[in-house]
Amino acid sequence: MTLNSEISGRIRDYRPRLPHRRWAPVADQVRATVAATAPATSYEVRRLLYAVGRLAVWADSGGLPRDPGV
Predict the structure, then answer these.
(1) Is the entire prediction scored with pTM above 0.70?
(2) In Å, how far from its chain's centre is CA 58?
(3) Residue 66 has what DSSP assignment?
């Protein structure tokens, strides 16, 4: 399933209210994860971005691997 251009744009342009130094290391993986899961869920993309983004930043700050398979 492909995302429409509006949803793709929201994912691409998403910037949380976090310091850039905390967001930048996980940004690409968060966007890829949300793009892959958005079609399979009923959650709004903005909510997915927020939740996945916060979780990724938290995990990264704790030193967990950035590998989504872990």
Answers:
(1) yes
(2) 12
(3) S
